[in-house]
Amino acid sequence: MGFYPADYVTVQAATSTTFTAPPQDGSLIFPDWIDWHIERSHDHPYAVLVGENEGEENVSIT
């Protein structure tokens, strides 16, 4: 069972000025995604590690 209804669709970072989506056609393997991100979206967090407990800080990885 998913978290969202089956017809729920969202375009991630559609209005972001710091993110350029990599191609979704399978032409890049994971290490290439990292290079793509570094070259084209260097000001956008690659990942955010969210603290598990109240009071823990979130950590952004760029």
From TrEMBL:
Protein name, entry field: Uncharacterized protein
Question: Which species is this record about?
Answer: Dacryopinax primogenitus (strain DJM 731)
Superkingdom of origin organism: Eukaryota
